[in-house]
Amino acid sequence: MRKCHRFLLNNLKRIYETVRLHLYLQPFGCIVFIKIMKRDIFQAIADPTRRAIIALIALQAMTPNAIAEHFDTTRQAVSKHLRILTECELVRQEQKGREIYYSLEIEKMKEIDKWLEQYRKIWETRFEQLDEVLKVMKKQKSEG
User: DSSP assignment of 74-110, as one string?
Assistant: First the structure.
């Protein structure tokens, strides 16, 4: 087995977990073309409509038509938002009969929360420091 093939096999699972990709191995040599399919989660949740969709389906799985009823937009626009959220793996589709239901992917939301936690701690520390500075300033003002 070629060295590059061994490398691919050893790292394929890790690579696939990082990005969705399609690998096209050429018959001669070891040329790999990677087509990245994954969207940025933070760009996806930056849109207020998509955040509202996440809030709706957090309570229960819903069809695209049921979701669209909550917005002043077309069904096609809601479907585009759902497709983006699905590509980010924030929501999942489940076929039930002739309907497709969308539900929130809780584990992915936990990943986002875990990433945000580091910044939450920094902000809390800075607010506590600001409180201490304000207390000192207030004390100095009352004494002076």
Answer: -HHHHHHHHHHHHHTTSEEEEEETTEEEEEE-HHHHH
